[in-house]
C-alpha cells in the first residue's frame, strides 16, 4: 500500500482487509503503487511485481527454440507433412524406391529455405527490439534523490518518469505534473494513429493546484484502473489519496507509449502500463494473412492431384498383383523376398508396391508450388510498390501492401463498398452557408471562390503566405540536447506503433498545421450577415459606454452574437503561435478581462439566449476544471461589477479584410476538419478564438476586445452522442450557459419546441440554453458520481449527458461541404465500366450524400432514383416487405435505376427475414447509396453481400468508423487521409488517394491474378507430364515400380532444372499493357469471371500433360527399339525431352518476353546439362548396381539424340499451339469490340 508505515495496529489490519477485497476485483481492475515505497523491500513484497516490465520482445524464436518451433509451425501446412511422410517411407527397405538420403533432399531444401526466411525476419525483429529497448529515459531514483537515465527496458510499472519536449514516451504514463502553467501537456500521436494535429492531455485534477514542483517522495496515493486493453480512446479508473478522497481518471490524463511530447518543456508521470501491456503494443497485430480465392481453388485441385496419384498407384498395384499372379508357384528370379526370406503373395506384393508407387509418383504433388507462390507474391508486391504512379507527393505517401498473400484477389473484385468523407472527398471541410435566427445566408461570394479554387493555387498560396517553408519543430526549445534530438528522430524506427513509411509521412505532415489550407481558412463573409454582426457589435459598444443591461439587445441580434460565440468556443481547438506553429499562444492579462460579471437585474432576463430551459448533462470530460472546485466557485458570491470591466481595450473597426492580430495570424490546431472550418468561419466575421486554458476560453469580438468565458465543463464529441457541448459562465450576463453543436439529426430532437422547418442542406446545428446555479450544481454532483464509476461508466455518462443536452434553443445551423478528391469521378466511371458494383455507405445525411454521389458520377441525373426511407424503425419494418416487392417489379421493367436507403430503413432491411429481398433489389440496381449508416451497419451490409451472394468484396475507407467494414471484406483498403491511420492499420492495402484504386485493381490486380493463375496451372501440368512418363514405363516392367530415369533427375527435376523460368514468368508476364487495361476497363471482367482459372482448365491441362507424356515416351521408345542401349542411356533422353517440352510450353504461354525470360530458360538448360555431365562423369557407383557413367557424354555424340530433341517437343506441343492460335482469334474479337 502507498501509505506511510507509521500507522500501526488498526491501520495495518484495515490494510489487510482491503487487500483481500481487492483480490476479488483482480480480474477487472489493476492497482498501481509507487515503486519508491518498496525500494528497500524484497522483490516479492512489491505489489507491482506481477505486471509486465517495459522490455519488448517481438521475436518468435530463441537459439534453442528456433529449430523445433519453426518445424512445428511449418508442419501446420499439410503439404510439408505429406512430403516428410514420403521421405521417411523411403527408409522402409521393403517399399523404398530411392536412396533414403536422396529422398530427403527436396523436403529438407524446402524446409530450409522457409526456415532461413523466418530466421532472417526474426533477426530483423530482434535488432529493432534491441534498438527500442536501449533507448534511454529519466526515471526517479530514491537513492540519488533525482532523475537518472535508464534504458526503456528497465522501466517498471510504478516508476516516476520525467519527460521532455520532443521526447518519445517509453510506456503508458499517467500525467501528474507539467511545466505548462495551465497544467497541460501536448502530445503528437502521428506514429500511433497517424494524426498530425496536437492532442491536449491534462494533469490529474488532484495534482492540478500544486504550488511547487512535483516531488515523487511525497506521493502516497493508490491508482485503481482497468486492465490493459487495446482501446486507444478509453481509460477508466480513479486515484485514492491518503485522505480517502477519490478522483476520476480519464483518457485525457494518460500519455500513450510511442507518442511525442510537444510544447511542454517537462512533464512527470507514473507508469501505468509497460511493455507488451501498453495500448500501442496491444494494437500491434502485424501484417494480416488471408487465404485468397485462387488459393482456395488451388487447394481443391491439389486434392484432385492426390486422388489421381492414388488412382495411378492403385492401378499399378493391381497390375503388379495380376502380373505376379500369372507366375503361379514359379516365382520370377527378380522377385523381392519378404524380410524373413519367404516369398510374398501377390496380394502382399501389390500392397507393398502401392506404397512404393506413392514414393515414385510423389512428384505429382508439387512440393515447390507453395514456396514458388510465396516468392512470386513477394516480387509482385515489390513491383507494385515501385510504381511511381501510385505515389502521392503532397503527403509523401505510397501504396502499402499489408497483406502479402492476397494480391491476386485484387483482380477478381465484384463489389466495392466505399465510405464518403475522406475517401471520395478530401475531408477538407469548407464553410458554405449558414442560417441564424431563422434567416438563411447563402454566402454566394464564398461559393464563387470555392468554385474557382484550384489545388495548385492552394499550394502556391500557402507557400507564399508563410514566406517559404515553415520552421522546424526541432527549434521549438533551446534547451534540447543532442541526445533528445536523436530520440525524436528515432520515432521513424519505432516499428511497434507504426511502420517506417507511416512515421516518415507523419514527420513531414507534422510540420504543417492540419486542416489549414487557404481553401479552408480564407472564407468570404456574407455581406448581410456581416452587417448584422457589425450592427450587433455597435449596439454592444454603445451599451458598454452607457452601462445598459444586455437584456435590451434585440433578440435577433442576441441570437447572432450567441451563434458566433458558440462557433468560437464550443470546440477543442488549440491556438498556436504564428511563428512557431507547435507553440501554444500565451495570453497576456493586461488586455484581457478578469472573470468579472456585471450586476444583473433579477427581475428581468439578461441572457443573450432567450427562452432557455435548464435540465442538462455531460458524457465525458475533456480539459475541464475540477468538479469539486467548480462546485466551490458556484457557492462563492460574485461581487458586482460595472459593464466596462467585461470588455477589453477597444480595437480598430473592422474594414472587411482578413482579421489579423497584432502579432500575426494565429493558427488553429483542430482535431477534426469541421471544427477548424467553424472556427475559421467565425474568424471571418471578426469573432476570433485567441486562447484556451483549462478553465477559460478567450475570444475577441469586433469593437469590444477580448472576452474571457469561464469554462465549467467540456463535453467531448463521441460517435454515440454525435454532438459536443461546453458549459461556461457568460461574462456579459453572469449566467451559466450551455452551448451545443452537433449533427442535425441529433440536435433537432433536443430542441424545444421541436423545429419543423429545418433546412436539408445544413449539417451542423448550433443550440444553447441557460441554467441556474442550483440546477448546474445538482447535475454536476450526479455527474461526478458517474465519472468515478469504473463499471458501466459509459452508460452512466451518457445518461448524465442526456440530462444536460435537452430542451435547447435553436441558434442556427451551418452548411459545411467537403471537396471531392481529384480523379474520383473518372475512377468511379472506369470501375463501373469494369463491371464493379459500387456501393457508398456513409454516416452523412441524405442530401449531402446524394450531392456528392452526383458530383462523383455515382448517380446519373438521367437515371431513376428510388428512395427507401421511414420515420421510425417500426414503420419501416412493417412497410419494408411491401416496398421491396414494389421495387422488384419496377426493376423488371427498367434496370437503369439507383437506390438509396436511410439508417432506419437499412436497419430493417438487414433483418434475416428480409435479407434476400433486400439483396434481390440492391443487386439489380446500378448504384446503391446508404445514408446515416453506423459503423456496425456498414460491416453488416458488407458481410451480408459477401456471404449471401458469394461474391468478392472490397471495402475502402479512411476513418476509425470504417475499420469494421474494412476487416469484414475480402480485401480491405485504407486511405491514409486526415482522419488518422486507424483504417490503414486495419487494412490489407493502403492508398494515398481514392483515384489510385483504379490502377491498383484494373492493372496490378489483373496482372497478379493472370500471372498466378497461369503459373499454378503450369505447375500442375509440368508435374503431371513428368510423372506420367514413369507411369507409361510401368506397362513394360511388370508394374514393378522401376524407373528408367535416374533418381537424381527425378528428385531435382522440379526443384532445380525447371524452377526458374516459371518464377520469372509468374513475376513479369503481362498479357495486356497497363495503358490498354486502363483505356479498356472492360477487360477486368476476365478476372471477375475467373476466366484464367476455371475448374475445367485443370482437367484440360492434366489431359494435355498425359498426351504430351505419351508423345515424349513413345517417340524415344520406338526410336531406340531393338537397340542395345542400357536403361539409363535410354531413360536420360526422357528427362531431356521433358525439360525441352515444358520450357517450350512455357514459352507458348508467355505473353511478354524480356531478357530475363531468355536468361532463365538458357540457365535452366545449361544447369541441366552441366549437372548431368558432371554427375555422369564423377559418380559411376552412386546408384549401385546401376551405372550412369558417361551416359550424357555418349548421348551428345549421337545424332539421333539431337533429332529427338527437335521432333518430340514439336509433336507434343503442336495440338496446344493450334488450339491456342484458334482461341486467340476468338479472344481478339471481344477485345476489338472495346476499341
UniProtKB/TrEMBL annotation:
<dbReference type="InterPro" id="IPR023214">
    <property type="entry name" value="HAD_sf"/>
</dbReference>
<dbReference type="Pfam" id="PF16209">
    <property type="entry name" value="PhoLip_ATPase_N"/>
</dbReference>
<feature type="transmembrane region" description="Helical">
    <location>
        <begin position="1098"/>
        <end position="1121"/>
    </location>
</feature>
<dbReference type="InterPro" id="IPR008250">
    <property type="entry name" value="ATPase_P-typ_transduc_dom_A_sf"/>
</dbReference>
<feature type="region of interest" description="Disordered">
    <location>
        <begin position="1"/>
        <end position="29"/>
    </location>
</feature>
<feature type="binding site">
    <location>
        <position position="421"/>
    </location>
    <ligand>
        <name>ATP</name>
    </ligand>
</feature>
<feature type="binding site">
    <location>
        <position position="717"/>
    </location>
    <ligand>
        <name>ATP</name>
    </ligand>
</feature>
<comment type="similarity">
    <text>Belongs to the cation transport ATPase (P-type) (TC 3.A.3) family. Type IV subfamily.</text>
</comment>
<keyword id="KW-0460">Magnesium</keyword>
<feature type="transmembrane region" description="Helical">
    <location>
        <begin position="1158"/>
        <end position="1178"/>
    </location>
</feature>
<dbReference type="InterPro" id="IPR023298">
    <property type="entry name" value="ATPase_P-typ_TM_dom_sf"/>
</dbReference>
<dbReference type="Pfam" id="PF13246">
    <property type="entry name" value="Cation_ATPase"/>
</dbReference>
<feature type="binding site">
    <location>
        <position position="843"/>
    </location>
    <ligand>
        <name>ATP</name>
    </ligand>
</feature>
<feature type="region of interest" description="Disordered">
    <location>
        <begin position="457"/>
        <end position="527"/>
    </location>
</feature>
<feature type="binding site">
    <location>
        <position position="962"/>
    </location>
    <ligand>
        <name>ATP</name>
    </ligand>
</feature>
<feature type="binding site">
    <location>
        <position position="419"/>
    </location>
    <ligand>
        <name>ATP</name>
    </ligand>
</feature>
<dbReference type="GO" id="GO:0140326">
    <property type="term" value="F:ATPase-coupled intramembrane lipid transporter activity"/>
</dbReference>
<dbReference type="GO" id="GO:0000287">
    <property type="term" value="F:magnesium ion binding"/>
</dbReference>
<dbReference type="InterPro" id="IPR001757">
    <property type="entry name" value="P_typ_ATPase"/>
</dbReference>
<feature type="binding site">
    <location>
        <position position="741"/>
    </location>
    <ligand>
        <name>ATP</name>
    </ligand>
</feature>
<keyword id="KW-0479">Metal-binding</keyword>
<feature type="transmembrane region" description="Helical">
    <location>
        <begin position="1127"/>
        <end position="1146"/>
    </location>
</feature>
<feature type="compositionally biased region" description="Polar residues">
    <location>
        <begin position="477"/>
        <end position="491"/>
    </location>
</feature>
<feature type="binding site">
    <location>
        <position position="421"/>
    </location>
    <ligand>
        <name>Mg(2+)</name>
    </ligand>
</feature>
<feature type="binding site">
    <location>
        <position position="419"/>
    </location>
    <ligand>
        <name>Mg(2+)</name>
    </ligand>
</feature>
<dbReference type="GO" id="GO:0016887">
    <property type="term" value="F:ATP hydrolysis activity"/>
</dbReference>
<dbReference type="InterPro" id="IPR023299">
    <property type="entry name" value="ATPase_P-typ_cyto_dom_N"/>
</dbReference>
<feature type="binding site">
    <location>
        <position position="844"/>
    </location>
    <ligand>
        <name>ATP</name>
    </ligand>
</feature>
<dbReference type="Pfam" id="PF16212">
    <property type="entry name" value="PhoLip_ATPase_C"/>
</dbReference>
<dbReference type="GO" id="GO:0005886">
    <property type="term" value="C:plasma membrane"/>
</dbReference>
<feature type="compositionally biased region" description="Polar residues">
    <location>
        <begin position="615"/>
        <end position="632"/>
    </location>
</feature>
<feature type="binding site">
    <location>
        <position position="961"/>
    </location>
    <ligand>
        <name>ATP</name>
    </ligand>
</feature>
<feature type="binding site">
    <location>
        <position position="842"/>
    </location>
    <ligand>
        <name>ATP</name>
    </ligand>
</feature>
<feature type="transmembrane region" description="Helical">
    <location>
        <begin position="347"/>
        <end position="371"/>
    </location>
</feature>
<feature type="binding site">
    <location>
        <position position="962"/>
    </location>
    <ligand>
        <name>Mg(2+)</name>
    </ligand>
</feature>
<dbReference type="InterPro" id="IPR032630">
    <property type="entry name" value="P_typ_ATPase_c"/>
</dbReference>
<feature type="binding site">
    <location>
        <position position="958"/>
    </location>
    <ligand>
        <name>Mg(2+)</name>
    </ligand>
</feature>
<dbReference type="InterPro" id="IPR018303">
    <property type="entry name" value="ATPase_P-typ_P_site"/>
</dbReference>
<dbReference type="InterPro" id="IPR006539">
    <property type="entry name" value="P-type_ATPase_IV"/>
</dbReference>
<dbReference type="InterPro" id="IPR032631">
    <property type="entry name" value="P-type_ATPase_N"/>
</dbReference>
<feature type="domain" description="P-type ATPase N-terminal">
    <location>
        <begin position="44"/>
        <end position="101"/>
    </location>
</feature>
<feature type="binding site">
    <location>
        <position position="938"/>
    </location>
    <ligand>
        <name>ATP</name>
    </ligand>
</feature>
Amino acid at each position: 500500500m502507498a501509505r506511510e508505515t507509521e500507522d500501526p495496529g488498526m491501520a495495518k489490519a484495515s490494510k489487510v482487509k482491503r487487500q483481500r477485497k481487492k483480490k476479488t476485483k483482480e480480474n477487472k481492475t489493476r492497482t498501481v503503487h509507487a515503486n519508491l515505497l518498496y525500494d528497500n523491500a524484497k522483490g516479492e513484497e512489491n505489489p507491482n511485481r506481477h505486471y509486465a516490465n517495459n522490455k519488448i520482445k517481438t521475436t518468435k524464436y530463441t537459439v534453442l527454440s528456433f529449430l523445433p518451433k519453426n518445424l512445428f509451425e511449418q508442419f501446420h501446412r499439410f503439404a510439408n507433412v505429406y512430403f516428410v511422410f514420403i521421405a521417411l517411407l523411403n527408409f522402409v527397405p521393403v517399399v523404398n524406391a530411392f536412396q533414403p538420403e536422396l529422398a530427403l533432399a527436396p523436403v529438407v531444401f524446402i524446409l530450409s529455405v522457409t526456415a532461413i526466411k523466418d530466421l532472417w525476419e526474426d533477426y530483423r525483429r530482434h535488432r529493432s527490439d534491441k534498438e527500442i529497448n536501449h533507448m534511454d529515459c529519466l526515471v526517479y531514483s530514491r537513492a540519488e534523490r533525482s532523475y537518472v537515465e535508464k534504458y526503456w527496458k528497465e522501466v517498471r510499472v510504478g516508476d516516476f518518469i520525467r519527460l521532455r519536449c520532443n521526447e518519445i514516451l517509453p510506456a503508458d504514463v499517467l500525467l501528474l505534473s507539467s511545466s505548462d502553467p495551465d497544467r497541460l501537456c501536448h502530445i503528437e500521436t502521428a506514429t500511433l494513429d497517424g494524426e498530425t494535429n496536437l492532442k491536449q492531455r491534462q494533469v490529474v485534477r488532484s495534482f492540478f493546484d500544486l504550488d511547487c514542483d512535483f516531488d515523487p517522495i511525497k506521493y502516497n496515493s493508490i491508482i485503481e484502473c482497468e486492465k490493459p486493453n487495446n482501446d486507444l480512446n478509453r481509460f477508466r479508473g480513479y486515484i485514492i489519496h491518503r485522505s480517502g478522497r477519490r478522483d476520476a481518471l480519464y483518457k485525457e490524463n494518460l500519455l500513450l507509449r510511442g507518442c511525442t511530447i510537444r510544447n511542454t518543456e517537462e512533464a512527470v508521470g507514473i507508469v501505468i502500463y509497460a511493455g507488451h501491456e501498453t495500448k500501442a503494443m496491444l494494437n500491434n497485430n502485424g501484417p494480416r494473412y488471408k487465404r485468397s480465392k485462387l488459393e482456395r481453388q488451388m487447394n481443391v485441385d491439389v486434392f484432385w492431384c492426390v486422388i489421381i496419384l492414388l488412382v495411378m498407384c492403385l492401378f499399378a498395384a493391381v497390375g503388379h498383383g495380376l502380373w505376379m499372379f500369372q507366375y503361379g508357384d514359379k516365382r520370377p528370379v527378380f522377385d523381392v523376398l519378404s524380410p524373413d526370406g519367404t516369398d510374398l503373395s501377390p496380394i502382399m506384393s501389390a500392397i507393398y508396391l502401392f506404397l512404393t508407387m506413392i514414393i515414385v509418383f510423389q512428384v505429382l504433388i508439387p512440393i515447390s508450388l507453395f514456396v514458388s507462390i510465396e516468392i512470386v507474391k513477394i516480387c509482385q508486391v515489390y513491383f507494385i510498390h515501385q510504381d511511381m504512379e501510385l505515389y502521392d507527393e503532397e503527403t509523401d505517401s505510397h501504396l502499402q501492401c499489408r497483406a502479402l498473400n492476397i494480391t491476386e484477389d485484387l483482380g477478381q473484385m465484384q463489389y466495392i463498398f466505399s465510405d464518403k468523407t475522406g475517401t471520395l472527398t478530401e475531408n477538407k471541410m469548407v464553410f458554405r452557408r449558414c442560417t441564424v435566427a431563422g434567416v438563411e445566408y447563402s454566402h454566394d461570394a464564398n461559393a464563387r471562390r470555392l468554385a474557382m479554387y484550384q489545388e495548385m493555387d492552394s499550394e502556391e498560396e500557402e507557400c507564399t503566405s508563410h514566406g517559404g517553408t515553415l520552421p522546424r519543430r526541432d527549434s521549438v526549445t533551446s534547451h534540447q540536447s543532442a541526445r533528445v534530438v536523436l530520440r525524436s528522430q528515432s520515432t521513424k524506427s519505432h516499428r511497434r506503433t507504426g511502420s517506417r513509411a507511416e512515421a516518415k509521412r507523419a514527420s513531414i505532415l507534422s510540420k504543417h498545421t492540419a486542416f489549414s489550407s487557404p481553401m479552408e481558412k480564407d472564407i468570404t463573409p456574407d455581406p448581410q450577415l456581416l452587417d448584422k454582426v457589425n450592427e450587433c457589435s455597435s449596439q454592444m459598444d454603445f451599451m458598454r459606454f452607457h452601462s445598459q443591461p444586455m437584456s435590451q439587445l434585440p433578440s435577433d441580434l442576441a441570437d447572432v452574437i450567441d451563434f458566433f460565440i458558440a462557433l468560437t468556443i464550443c470546440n477543442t481547438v488549440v491556438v498556436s503561435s504564428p511563428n512557431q506553429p507547435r507553440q501554444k499562444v500565451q495570453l497576456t492579462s493586461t488586455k484581457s478581462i478578469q472573470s468579472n460579471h456585471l450586476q444583473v437585474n433579477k427581475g428581468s432576463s439578461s441572457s443573450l439566449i432567450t427562452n432557455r430551459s435548464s435540465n442538462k448533462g455531460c458524457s465525458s470530460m475533456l480539459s475541464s476544471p475540477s468538479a469539486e472546485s467548480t462546485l466551490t466557485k458556484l457557492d462563492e458570491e460574485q461581487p458586482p461589477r460595472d459593464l466596462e470591466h467585461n470588455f477589453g481595450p477597444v480595437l480598430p473597426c473592422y474594414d472587411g479584410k482578413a482579421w489579423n492580430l497584432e502579432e500575426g495570424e494565429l493558427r488553429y490546431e483542430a482535431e477534426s476538419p469541421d471544427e477548424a472550418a467553424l472556427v475559421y468561419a467565425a474568424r471571418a466575421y471578426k469573432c476570433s478564438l485567441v486562447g484556451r486554458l483549462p478553465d477559460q476560453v478567450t475570444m475577441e469580438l469586433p469593437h469590444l476586445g477580448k472576452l474571457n468565458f469561464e469554462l465549467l465543463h467540456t463535453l467531448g464529441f463521441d460517435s454515440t452522442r454525435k454532438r459536443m457541448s461546453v458549459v461556461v459562465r457568460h461574462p456579459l450576463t453572469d449566467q451559466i450557459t450551455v452551448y451545443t453543436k452537433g449533427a442535425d439529426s441529433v440536435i433537432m430532437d433536443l430542441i424545444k419546441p421541436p423545429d419543423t422547418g429545418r433546412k436539408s442542406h445544413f449539417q451542423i446545428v448550433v443550440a444553447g440554453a441557460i441554467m441556474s446555479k442550483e440546477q448546474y450544481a445538482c447535475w454536476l454532483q450526479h455527474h461526478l458520481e458517474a465519472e468515478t464509476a469504473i463499471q458501466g461508466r459509459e452508460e452512466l455518462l451518457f445518461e448524465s449527458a442526456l440530462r444536460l443536452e435537452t430542451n435547447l434553443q435553436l441558434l442556427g445551423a451551418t452548411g459545411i461541404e467537403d471537396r471531392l478528391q481529384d480523379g474520383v469521378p473518372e475512377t468511379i466511371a472506369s470501375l463501373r465500366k469494369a463491371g464493379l458494383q459500387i456501393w457508398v455507405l456513409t454516416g452523412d445525411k441524405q442530401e449531402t450524400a446524394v450531392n456528392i454521389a452526383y458530383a462523383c458520377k455515382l448517380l446519373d441525373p438521367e437515371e431513376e432514383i428510388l428512395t427507401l426511407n421511414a420515420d421510425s424503425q417500426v414503420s419501416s419494418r412493417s412497410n419494408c416487405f411491401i416496398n421491396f416487392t414494389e421495387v422488384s417489379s419496377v426493376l423488371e421493367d427498367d434496370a437503369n435505376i439507383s437506390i438509396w436507403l436511410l439508417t432506419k430503413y437499412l436497419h430493417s432491411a438487414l433483418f434475416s427475414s428480409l435479407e434476400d429481398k433486400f439483396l434481390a433489389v440492391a443487386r439489380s440496381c446500378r448504384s446503391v447509396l446508404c445514408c446515416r449508416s453506423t459503423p456496425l451497419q456498414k460491416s453488416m451490409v458488407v458481410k451480408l453481400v459477401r456471404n449471401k451472394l458469394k461474391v468478392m468484396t472490397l471495402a475502402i475507407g479512411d476513418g476509425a468508423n470504417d475499420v469494421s467494414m474494412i476487416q469484414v471484406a475480402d480485401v480491405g483498403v485504407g486511405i491514409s487521409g486526415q482522419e488518422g491511420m486507424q483504417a490503414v492499420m486495419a487494412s490489407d492495402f493502403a492508398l494515398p488517394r481514392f483515384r489510385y484504386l483504379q490502377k491498383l485493381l484494373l492493372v496490378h490486380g489483373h496482372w497478379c491474378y493472370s500471372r498466378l493463375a497461369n503459373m499454378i496451372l503450369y505447375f500442375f501440368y509440368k508435374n503431371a507430364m513428368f510423372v506420367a512418363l514413369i507411369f507409361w514405363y510401368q506397362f513394360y516392367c511388370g508394374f514393378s515400380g522401376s524407373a528408367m530415369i535416374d533418381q537424381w533427375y527425378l528428385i531435382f527435376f522440379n526443384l532445380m532444372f525447371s524452377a526458374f523460368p516459371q518464377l520469372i514468368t509468374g513475376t513479369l508476364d503481362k498479357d495486356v499493357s497497363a495503358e490498354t487495361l486502363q483505356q479498356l476497363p472492360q477487360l477486368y471482367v476476365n478476372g471477375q469471371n475467373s476466366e484464367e482459372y476455371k475448374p475445367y482448365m485443370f482437367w484440360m491441362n492434366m489431359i494435355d500433360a498425359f498426351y504430351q507424356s505419351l508423345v515424349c515416351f513413345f517417340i524415344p521408345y520406338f526410336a531406340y527399339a531393338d537397340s542395345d542401349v542400357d536403361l539409363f542411356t535410354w531413360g536420360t533422353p526422357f528427362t531431356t525431352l521433358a525439360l525441352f517440352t515444358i520450357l517450350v510450353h512455357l514459352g507458348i504461354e508467355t505473353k511478354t518476353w524480356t531478357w530475363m525470360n531468355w536468361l532463365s530458360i538458357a540457365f535452366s538448360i545449361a544447369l541441366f546439362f552441366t549437372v548431368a555431365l558432371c554427375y555422369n562423369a564423377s559418380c559411376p557407383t552412386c546408384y549401385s548396381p546401376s551405372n550412369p557413367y558417361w551416359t550424357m557424354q555418349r548421348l551428345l555424340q549421337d545424332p539421333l539424340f539431337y533429332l529427338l530433341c527437335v521432333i518430340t517437343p514439336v509433336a507434343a506441343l503442336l495440338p496446344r499451339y493450334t488450339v491456342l492460335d484458334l482461341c486467340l482469334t476468338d479472344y481478339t474479337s471481344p477485345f476489338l469490340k472495346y476499341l
